Structures are given as C-alpha cells and as structure tokens.
TrEMBL record:
Pfam families: T2SSE. The keyword ATP-binding applies. Gene3D superfamilies: 3.30.450.90, P-loop containing nucleotide triphosphate hydrolases (3.40.50.300). It comes from Periweissella beninensis. PANTHER family: COMG OPERON PROTEIN 1, TYPE II SECRETION SYSTEM PROTEIN GSPE-RELATED. The lineage of its organism: Bacteria, Bacillati, Bacillota, Bacilli, Lactobacillales. This is Flp pilus assembly complex ATPase component TadA. Residues 7-275 form the Bacterial type II secretion system protein E domain. The gene is tadA.
Length: 324
C-alpha cells in the first residue's frame, strides 16, 4: 500500500512510476466516504496506484494546482493548467468540483513523440505510409480515442522534417510535445479557434500541417484550402472505418469534387493486443485511387485473420476487434 508521508515525495515517486510505464492520465477522484483513489490510465487497463484520505488528497490537489499555476482556493469551478515535469514530458491538469463539493483532478501526461512510437502488426504498413506521405494533399487518420493516430502523424511528420520541411501543428489541445515543430493550441477565450489558427498558419507558409481534428464544415473547408494551396495536411476525423471517412466529409458539406482533388490517403487505425502483451497498430489503408474504388471487401477483418493465422494475436483478440 502506498503511504503519503510528504506530498512532494509522494508526487515525485508517482511521476517516476507513471512516466516509466507511459501512463497517459492520472486520476485523483473521490470514492467512498473519506477516501480518494489515485488511478493510472494505461492503454490496456486502468490501475489503482493509491488510496488517500481526504486530507492527503487535498494536499496533493493543492500541490499539483500550485505547480500548474491554478487557483488553489477555488475547488468548485473548472480550472486548467500545465507545467513541465521533465525535458521530454509535461503535465496538463484539469480540475472540477462535483455536486457534493468534492474536487477531482485529471492529469494528462504529454510525452515527446519519440517516446511513443507504435509497433505495427504488419511493419510494412508504416513503410507504405511513409512512401505515400511525401505526396502533397490530405492524409486523414480515423480510429477510436487512444488508437495512436496522433503519434503516427507526428512520427511521419518528423520524417518529413528531416528533409528541412517546416511542420506546423494546430490541436485542441496539444497532445504530444515536439520541439522541432511549431505547435499552436486552440484557445476559445482568446478567439483562437481551429479556423483562425489555420488562417494564421497559412501565412507562416509551412510545408506540412498537422490539424488535430476535422470537426465541422468550417474546419473541413480550411483543411481543403490548405491542401489546394499545395501543402501536405495530416489530420484526423471521427469515423468507424476507412470507408466511412468520405461519407462523413460529404455530411460536413464538402463537395466530392474537392475531396477527389485533395485527399491522398485515408487510414483507419486501432491498437491491437499482440500475443507478447504489447499493443501494436493495425491499419486499414486506402491510398490514392483505392479511395474511390467501389468495393465491399472487408479488408480490416482479412488483416485481423491474417494476424491470427500468423499467431500474432489470440482467437479472443480476433473476435473482439473484427468488424463483422
């Protein structure tokens, strides 16, 4: 059992373990009466790190909020802040009080992308992407939250940066720390929405845009405009398959003509448990003319079955992640 003797020592020990295990989030949440749970969120499962008394949790909340330059006296209204932990990691903090006036904290750990490289069930998939990403136009990534889409985009962009290309990212919020890139973050209070930042970004004349998410008609139009201007654009969108991306963009009001003129690749990605216990990326890729082929082939399940036949994944994993 973890015991808090000194709040600073407790925090430091917690961070050492969390960063070693590449924990994505640390929750400090009220539970049963007179207790708080400290929970590590990891890719495969959540793990309870410690149980604290109300007094201990309050001390930890105050310590973290102080480091994040937040108001330590306000325990009810939503707040956010951030601070640097190490050279390659910083923490983004969000706090809010519930109806019982119990404060909860969620701490997101933002790692340098070089520490977050995904393995691939089929390594040739990354090489295919890398070859195709050198073409200008839009490269769209879809998949569930936590699927490593942003990590993949950053890794590909870093390859392009090696050719002295300027990379500009626009995100809400920034999820990965990359000092070689110019990183902009959406800020509604400062009137810095996606569309505003894309307009600013175009004036900076980057070679490559990373746009965190296509979320509405205006963002989609701005992404199209950036691609028509000759830029390489890497972005994400909510869709349940590679084939679902084009209908989603049409629903957002983008004409098919412009999609055909700008989209270069569509990738649906999930992280799949390998038999080794590691999570590895599996992608369904539609590259170039494949995007517009009218086919009902269930390529995702075919690749899952191939991974199962090659004994890379278990039968349970195959059944869990198949689409049909």
């Amino acid at each position: 059992m973890i015991v808090m003797i000194n709040v600073q020592d407790f925090f430091n020990e917690m961070i050492v373990l969390a960063t070693k295990d590449k924990v994505s989030d640390i929750y400090i949440l009220p539970s049963e009466a007179n207790a708080y749970h400290v929970i590590f969120k990891q890719k495969i499962q959540n793990q309870r790190y410690a149980t604290l008394s109300i007094l201990e949790a309050k001390q930890l909340h105050i310590y973290i909020k102080y480091k994040a330059n937040m108001d330590i006296a306000d325990m009810r209204r939503p707040q956010s802040g951030q601070f640097c932990i190490t050279k390659n990691c910083f923490m983004r903090v969000s706090s809010v009080g519930n109806y019982q006036q119990q404060e909860s904290l969620v701490c997101r750990l933002i790692y340098a992308f070089t520490d977050l490289k995904n393995g691939y069930l089929f390594p040739t998939q990354y090489q295919q992407l890398l070859s195709n990403i050198k073409k200008t136009g839009i490269h769209i990534f879809a998949g569930p939250m936590g699927a490593g889409k942003t990590s993949t985009m950053y890794r590909l962009a870093d390859e392009l940066a090696n050719y002295n290309q300027m990379i500009l990212t626009i995100e809400d919020p920034v999820e990965i720390y990359a000092p070689k890139f110019l990183q902009l973050q959406v800020n509604s209070l400062a009137n810095m929405e996606y569309l505003d930042l894309i307009k600013v970004g175009l004036r900076h004349r980057p070679d490559v845009f990373i746009i965190g998410e296509i979320r509405d008609n205006q963002t989609a139009k701005a992404v199209i405009q950036a691609a028509l201007s000759g830029h390489t654009v890497l972005t994400t969108i909510h869709a349940r398959s590679a084939q679902g991306v084009i209908p989603r963009l049409i629903d957002l009001g983008i004409e098919k003509y412009y999609l055909k003129a700008t989209i270069n690749s569509i990738v649906y990605q999930e992280l799949i448990p390998h038999k080794s216990g590691e999570l590895q990326a599996l992608q369904e890729q539609l590259l170039n003319k494949q995007i517009w082929l009218d086919t009902n082939t269930n390529r995702w399940d075919e690749m899952l079955n191939e991974a199962y036949q090659q004994e890379k994944i278990s039968a349970t994993t195959f059944q869990t992640y198949r689409k049909v």
